[in-house]
Design brief:
Length: 420
């Protein structure tokens, strides 16, 4: 049997890596603008972290987690999202004791979810995320949304709109839960098995169901916004004022609840119009109770996550491939076996000077070396050997103009650097 990658996973190949590196570089620059610092958490965590943090009524916990027993008979889960791990790191390392807010981000964070693989959604994918701990004001949400819009626009994506909602706090959400239960009371028997199960434990989750019959039933359900307490309403209105002042297009979408139980107050998604339909590129929101729920002090927080594979898919759909890159600036060719050592020395000297240089490693003739140099995108080819070398020189060929000239070997590295 041929060895293949597991279903729902995908290799990042050398010809694609430059695009990942470009996106990651822009993410790091954008995070630095607002004082966010990088955090890296383990690929796996104790399962309890996600049961308590993400919520046992979510699709992630009920259907999608990769969970196993390790050799110590501990229940371990490959992380299905990035926020819970970041919160655990905050608590365990007492980052909350430093000056707040504590702003962190993660890049190329592997996330694992067992679901049907489809375009832009894999069982292993990678996320860029930002988390801001200790900021209670709506400026924290506005900041993250603004940073995200700046990033996506700079990468070349357009037709973007922010969809926002407020799902309230535990106080006002309890009143809404009762209103939603009253509305669904005689309809719940017509909904899917998952919705019927969630109805008694967390009725808000039924609004997130993707089954068409359930979506039709809940379309006329009461809106959480109508049940917000004064504090949550003021918070939501201030967020809208901040987005308007920044000129960020947004819509209030009362059906956004997000798929994670830890959210409070603000939830948001960034939607991109593509082929007449709206695609959610990313989502996030406020989770003021999660730090305390996981054993830390009461700490306000807000964050988001966005999949790198989804960004790349949408960029390619628009014909955007990122900045052109070459693997080699200078290729050092040799005419004979006795020229291998001088070619190696010059190649390493060029690298010492910060120049991307390569040389022949397979024993090809000069014609084959030129073909390979052309494939690598080399601007110049150095030819070591022949009469030129006997005169103490090398021959330098410009691969664009095809012009050739001799340069003293002792001056070759500096001359090439000057040309580049």
């Amino acid at each position: 049997m041929a060895v293949q990658a597991p279903k729902g996973t995908k290799d990042m190949l050398p010809q694609d890596s430059y695009m990942w590196q470009w996106i990651e570089s822009e993410e790091r620059k954008m995070a630095a603008l607002a004082g966010f610092r990088e955090v890296r958490t383990p690929v796996f965590e104790h399962t309890e972290l996600f049961l308590r943090g993400v919520g046992d009524t979510t699709d992630i916990v009920q259907k999608e987690m990769y969970t196993f027993r390790d050799k110590g008979d501990r229940s371990i889960t490959l992380k299905p999202e990035g926020t819970a791990g970041a919160v655990r790191a905050l608590i365990e390392n007492q980052l909350y004791a430093d000056a707040l807010p504590c702003k962190v981000y993660y890049v190329n964070n592997p996330v694992f979810r067992y679901e049907k693989p489809q375009n832009g959604r894999l069982r292993e994918h990678h996320q860029f995320g930002m988390e801001c701990f200790g900021a209670k004001e709506p400026t924290a949400e506005a900041e993250l949304i603004s940073l995200l819009m700046r990033l996506l626009t700079k990468l070349g994506l357009d037709s973007l709109c922010v969809h926002i909602n407020s799902i309230g706090c535990p106080e006002c959400r309890a009143k809404y839960h009762q209103a939603l239960k009253d509305f669904l009371g005689d309809k719940i028997s017509d909904m899917c098995e998952t919705c019927r199960e969630r109805f008694g434990r967390n009725p808000l989750r039924v609004l997130d169901c993707k089954v068409d019959t359930c979506k039709e039933i809940v379309k006329d359900a009461p809106s959480m916004i109508d049940y917000l307490c004064d504090d949550c309403r003021a918070h939501f209105e201030k967020l809208q004022q901040l987005l308007s002042a920044r000129g960020i297009p947004f819509e209030v979408d009362s059906r956004i609840v997000r798929g994670l139980d830890y959210y409070t107050k603000t939830v948001f998604e960034i939607i991109m119009q593509s082929n007449g339909t709206g695609l959610a590129l990313c989502g996030g929101g406020r989770y003021d109770g999660l730090v305390k729920e996981l054993g830390g002090p009461e700490t306000c927080a807000v964050g988001f996550g966005i999949g790198t594979e989804r960004i790349i898919m949408e960029l390619k759909n628009k014909g955007i491939t990122g900045p052109a890159v070459t693997t080699t600036d200078v290729f050092v060719a040799n005419l004979s076996e006795d020229m291998v050592q001088p070619a190696f020395t010059l190649t390493e000297t060029l690298r010492d000077m910060g120049i991307k240089a390569d040389m022949e490693h397979t024993g090809r003739k000069l014609k084959g070396q030129f073909k390979f140099a052309d494939k690598t995108g080399a601007r110049y080819v150095v030819i070591m050997g022949g009469e030129e070398y006997e005169r103490g020189n090398i021959k330098l060929r410009d691969m664009q103009t095809k012009e050739e000239k001799e340069i003293p070997l002792t001056e070759a590295a500096e001359a090439i650097k000057a040309l580049l």
